[in-house]
Sequence to fold (347 residues):
Amino acid sequence: MKPTFMLRGGEKDRPKKIGWWLVLCTLLSLGMIVLGALTRLTQSGLSIVDWKPVTAWLPPMNDVAWQAAFDAYKQFPEYQRVNFSMDLAGYKSIYWLEYAHRLLGRIIGFVFAIPMFWWWSRGVLPRFLRGRMLGLLVLGGMQGFVGWFMVQSGLVDVPHVSAYRLTIHLLLATFLFAGLWWSALDVFFPESYSVNKSTRNRACVFLLLVWTTITAGGLVAGNRAGLIMADWPTMGGQWIPDGLVSMTPLWRNLLDNIITIQFQHRMLAYCVVLFAIFQFWTMVRDGVHGRITRLGFFVVLAVLVQVSLGVGTLLLGVTPAIAACHQGMGMLVLAVSLMLCHRMSSP
Fold:
């Protein structure tokens, strides 16, 4: 089919430098998500016990400052109950990842905000992007606050952050990533291809399924549910593990039962694989435009890689490098799924 050109906002002028800036911000947000995963997996996230988003750009610069940071860390449950034998060198080893995670967040804020306001003031930023960019800037600020809100939950009583807050933090990160990537696509690909309604609806349902699976993955990470029943394709040698619905009321199992949390993430992942294959098959069957069909094929490939990384993460005992790649690949699955929806228009 011939492309139907859709110029959102009615503007033809879409400077490519705006698109590349948005791609850069998207890649930085992907790096932030992967670095956040490594921070969590190495149990480094509670090493900095205060939040100074404006002033704390530099790490401790001398022995006195390092000792002061370590002494502050000693006042909280993670040191008192878990790392009580840790020395200053051990503290430094967990400090640097959390520091890098926070520093990258600040850098992303400047890389996003300064060009945005500069191009806006010069009339270069397309009008249809302006409100969206302001929204993403606010969302980025909220993400920093939610990150500290999450850390605070691990500084009181139990030295482990709330799974709910961690999942919210992850979801906000995916919204930022998606908003940046979709905006970049708007600049580079204003045209879309006409497809039938069922094809577009399937792509939208698939995108929702991917987002739901990522949310379930956040609950797995927050509850460390990947550390139990580390076999595959069964769980604890069973297809339907014992204790799957042991909590009452029933809905609590979906949020608090670590067996159910791992099981539901697995089932959602299987659904994603089957749906991706089905979606691609229907594109071939219906003769959907070649570029859209190729995107459907890339979706299948990305999903298969992601599931392989998930199985590897489980069987290897949640090795930080593999688990972080699994989280990063989840964002790439989201990216290609968003691109598939973006390139389609209604008949």
